[in-house]
Amino acid sequence: MDTPRTLMQGVGTVNTGHNEDYVIETQGLSKSFGETVALRDLNLRVPRNSIFGFLGPNGAGKTTTIKLLLGLIQPTAGGGTVFGRDISRNSVEVRRRIGYLAQVPSYYTHMTAREILRFKMRFYYSGPREAIEERVAETLGMVELDDKADRPIKGFSGGERQRLGIAQAQVHRPDLLILDEPAANLDPMGRRDVLNIMDGLREHSTVFYSTHILDDVERVSDTVAILNRGELLAQAPIGELLAGGGGTVYTMTIKGDHQSAYSRISAQEWVSNVNVVHGDERTRLQIGVSDEGAAEDLLLRLAVAEGGAVVTEFGRRRYELEDVFVDMVEGDNGGK
Amino acid sequence: MASDQRLTATDGSGFLSGFWNMLGKENGRWIKTRRWLVQSVVWLLLLNGLVTMILYLESDVTIQGPPGSDLGPPSYVNVFFALMGSMTPFGVMVLTQSDIVGEKQSGTAEWVLSSPLSRDAFLLSKLLTNALWIFGLLVGLQGLAFNVVLARFGVGTVPWPDLARALGMECLHLVFWLTLTMMLGTFFSGRGPVLGIPIALLILQDLSELATIWVPSLPQYMPKRLTEMATALAMGEPLSTWVPIATVVVCSVVFVLAALWRFKREEF
Q1: Quick one: which of A29, A149, B154, B239 has the most CB atoms within 10 Å?
Q2: A120 exposed, middle or buried (CB, 10 Å; 0-12, 13-18, 19+)?
Q3: Enclosing domain of residue B92
Q4: For residues A64 and A101, what is the distance between their CA atoms, to the nearest angstrom?
Q5: B110 and A96: CB-CB below 8 Å?
Q6: Residue B10 counted as domain residue
């Protein structure tokens, strides 16, 4: 499959001045731990009010990037801005507008869920106790933890801890939410809950989250970046990424004589390649074309022109994010 | 949202950003976990319990202070401050050794520092809260109880102004160990060196007596000298020297500055 590497265009052309359309902008952001390069020359732009999926296999540099944005670690080279503020020099101000959920969240165990939210809230706001309590209660309700609000968090399940994590990241209504693997290690119900919450935040915040769960990305993200071995392979709106960049592919399943159909189809000028996958009774053709109009007009007719073959399935192949991701990452790994 | 209009955004840019909130949290760690109660009981037993036991055993013996004086026998003051000076540094080390390292290991430091909390505020809030509770429970409460015990056994009490000066000196003594332990917590990621180095220094301090052959003034620079001075103050004697005080103050300031410097460079 031809991967949409052309989508990498634009990477590396980030303006140094702050663009109001982008919440996060990094320029050549790099981080090494001793001899190990964790992140190399990252140029990232996260659009305002997007749900931005930051994809990559384990060890790709996703968490390193997030920690750099939060000022928890310092870059070896390059830099970046969040809301136009330098991530190294103005870290405290940057964090004022961010809510963060760590990959393995840790809280003070002597506190209850309500106390944790109250504590977190007071870093951002002062005011009457009732107003703080009201906000805390609203947030607990949003993540459906109101009935467990006053229990010690030691007894919380994984899903409850993750919902508490989202609540503490969200309690001050940040302009940017950074979530590191928010749905990892959760059962399907827990994952669904977390994704629903993220989806609900779309209106008010920009959500930047890292993950390696591709289904989640397809479900909630509108923009995606793919990172591998500390390098950015692509960033684009998810629609563009899924549309692919290497031509159009149709799939056709034939019962009966597929050989003559194959010969007629592969002889066409607008057909760039035909892959044949043999099954027990049926044969599947994957047909790469350069002219979609001709393909839609003629492919079926060519297949059944002389009889002896029955087409049981025909359609344009939809790229799955998994195809794009695996192809990119494997291509990148193979080239090194 | 109704609550929004009543809330005011806090200033998140200063070097002490988040300090008061963190201070409240640290304070809660002493109050809500009943740590204060446990420590009060433990130190009352360790210090005043021993003094009480000695007084009880000697209660058959008639002991009187100097005529016209409220001060009890100097031996009890000596015992009390010797116990306090030798035991409370260990208490400080044990109570604070995991304050920084524990938060680094558990990930709570990463979590809380993802808020608009400055690293200086994180450290200083811990230092201040620990100092106040340790002074209160390991020094102040014990001094108060000591005088109550002396009064109970009818051997005369230490005059309150003298006792206050003596306890202040002990607090200064503990500042040395508190700031040292805290500084080590910023430099190391394991509890071993954070606890081991101060204990080793405490032992070396006693061994330093042997080195007076070559450096006669060496004891003047040792933190434990403050305990000897505290004992003298409790007996109504004036300060004999400022050298140990200046040494401890300078060392403590250096420890705090080193801790702040190192913690700014910590990567989470």
Answers
A1: A29
A2: buried
A3: 17-57+67-264
A4: 14
A5: no
A6: no
Task: Report which of B115, B142, B127 is spatially closest to residue B234, judged by C-alpha positions.
Answer: B142
Q: Nearest-CA residue of chain A relative to B108?
A: A106
For residue B17, list chain A residues with Cβ-Cβ distance below 8 A: 92
Q: Model ipTM?
A: 0.84
CB contact under 8 A, A74 and B115: no
Beta carbons of A134 and B3 less than 8 Å apart: yes
Domain boundaries, chain A: 5-97+174-243, 248-318
Q: Please report, in tens digits, the pLDDT of each residue of chain B (268 residues total).
A: 445 778 888 876 688 999 999 999 999 999 988 899 999 999 999 999 999 998 888 775 554 444 444 445 568 899 999 999 999 999 999 999 999 999 999 999 999 999 999 999 999 999 999 999 999 999 999 999 999 999 988 888 999 999 999 999 999 999 999 999 999 999 999 999 999 999 999 988 888 777 777 777 777 888 999 999 999 999 999 998 999 999 999 999 999 999 999 999 999 9
Strand partners, A99: A177
Decide if B8 is inside a domain: no
Q: Closest Cα partner for A51 from A190, A225, A169, A168?
A: A225
Query: Is-above-0.90 flag for pTM?
Result: no
Q: Cα distance from A95 to chain B (closest Cα, Å)?
A: 5
Scanning every residue of chain A, which has its alpha carbon at the shortest distance from the alpha carbon of B111? A106
B35 touches chain A (CB under 8 A): no
Which residues lie closer than 8 Å to B150 by C-beta, 6 or more apart? B55, B72, B76, B156, B157, B158
Q: Which CATH architecture has domain A248-318?
A: 2-Layer Sandwich (3.30)
B21 closest CB neighbour out of A73, A110, A123: A123
| Digit-coded pLDDT (tens) for A136-177 | 999 999 888 999 999 988 888 888 888 899 899 999 999 999
Q: Is the pLDDT assigned to residue A12 strictly greater than 70? A: no
Out of B28, B33, B268, the one facing A73 most closely (by C-beta) is B268
Q: How far is CA B123 from CA A74, A201, B16, in A?
A: 19, 34, 10
User: Positive or negative CA dihedral for B36, B41, B42, B45?
Assistant: positive
Topology (CATH) of A5-97+174-243 = Rossmann fold (3.40.50)
pLDDT of residue B219: 78
Q: Rounded to whole angstroms, how far apart are CA atoms A4 and A171?
A: 39
Q: What is the pLDDT of residue B155?
A: 83
Least CA distance to B3: which residue of chain A?
Answer: A131
Interface contact B12-A93, CB threshold 8 A: yes
Min Cα–Cα distance to chain B from A138, Å: 10
Chain B residues in contact with A115 (beta carbon < 8 A): 28
- A192 CB contacts (<8 Å, ≥6 apart)? none
Work out how many domains chain B is built from and give that number.
1
- B114/A120 Cβ within 8 A: no
Encode pLDDT of A240-273 as tens digits: 877 665 567 888 999 888 888 888 999 999 998 8
Closest CA to B108 of A165, A118, A125: A165
- Structural domain includes residue B9: no
- Distance (Å, whole) CA A8 – CA A5: 6
B159 φ, ψ (degrees, to nearest 5): -55, 135
* Mean pLDDT calculated for residue range A25-50: 94
Does residue B175 lie in a domain region? yes
A99: closest CA among A204, A14, A20? A204
